[in-house]
């Protein structure tokens, strides 16, 4: 039964995407035919090979050896990306053993949302994805490569790399992650410290000590936000080596996996990315998102990724897949465990095994390992210096963290779509208790996070209300994440008040225990109805039934004019450089892409 539903959803996507998908594949086929290293002019080749050691140059210039691109998001501002510093040399060294070579083709920018949260820099975050995609294209534009390795982990970086890679989809591609940092203090302790600080019960020094015990080493943050959801999706789409997502950096196994990625590329037939990544791979990624309670950001990013491959998905597809996919994992903020505990309990291998068993995943998909998702039920072990794959566990080691399909945390997925007279929005409910999933309360309209925080500190929010923050969408200010609201709303909910949030901005994978209707489309700047809401309007947010409405006479609602926000400040912190991105951006539901029109 589940398999039939999955096939029906996939068939709808295939039919909807037929023209755009065929156009994309034809475009890639044409590029594949006409662009070859051997056909470049001698001066072009000489420039390309000038820095290569002579003994390798001789083989490459005679087209005897394969030459691969390495594109990396390395920087040492981001804990998750610092380990990538050493990966290019590991890859090159392994390739040489197999008479192949790689060139570091280009670096892409990578910013940390955790550092910019609540400040102007966060308004560059969403569109940094498009910059990364373009930077990837620039790196690959030299046309001297037989394939590519992509090194990246965090929020906008992996989607940007993949969108860029799909523009060169005639190349075989492997994505290589760095893994999560080792566990520090529990995410529950970290969250409690933030709430205590917001209430004025601990000092700034105590808060900083707590935060530094949580974010304490190299690797991704250990909560299940967008970065770790990225890694899950890469595995569900078959673009990683199996179960390589959550192996810690700077370990013998992690280094061996980087070597194995290089070896695999030259000793196996890895299909070109355009042919590998199909509608079925995209559907598998959505299933993985729902089964693990992943980041809401992927209701934007995955849409953009799919469109770059000529595949048209929408929020109705997410909703349909959520309704049929059981929630199998509880990882913070959906539970108390971190990703290291999730991995130790059974990890992605167990999740994929359970979903395949119930027909909830397409198993006949192309991956870098071949046409078989069952490979992703196996875990890598380092035995006598070699990677050996063995079956993952059949039974969860802790059912407070990971459960089988027969006993899920919920019968449906963690992300829902809301619809009503305000518009359409996304809500993550996997960590929202059932008694908070339906809220009926008056609206309080705010124009910034700062205005909301000031109202809280003036003790004006001790009541039932639904906070409304319009003009936070991609066209307005780049659609920043609004994490400053999370601790405050959590405090008010703990005090017994009924509270919720509606915004055309983002909350991401850290969406917590308070119901938040986010990514509201159409956004306020495009005349969306969120801008018509006034203080005191009674609103109902019903996550279970997918309902989001202002309770007002329909005629009166239609007569209201959308508000216009004057004097939007889009200067400072480099925001002026992104003005073209904002003015061209598509809606959140269509991927919030600054070049979205080209994929229509």
Automatic annotation (TrEMBL):
Residues annotated as domain Dihydroxy-acid/6-phosphogluconate dehydratase C-terminal: 401-592
InterPro entries according to UniProt: 6-phosphgluc_deHydtase, Dihydro-acid_dehy_C, DiOHA_6PGluconate_deHydtase_CS, ILV_EDD_C, ILV_EDD_N, IlvD/EDD_N
Keywords: 4Fe-4S, Carbohydrate metabolism, Gluconate utilization, Iron, Iron-sulfur, Lyase, Metal-binding
Pfam families from the UniProt entry: ILV_EDD_C, ILVD_EDD_N
Matching Gene3D superfamilies: IlvD/EDD C-terminal domain-like
Catalyzed reactions: 6-phospho-D-gluconate = 2-dehydro-3-deoxy-6-phospho-D-gluconate + H2O
NCBIfam families in the record: edd
Identification of the protein by name: Phosphogluconate dehydratase
Organism from which the protein derives: Campylobacter cuniculorum DSM 23162 = LMG 24588
Lineage: Bacteria, Pseudomonadati, Campylobacterota, Epsilonproteobacteria, Campylobacterales
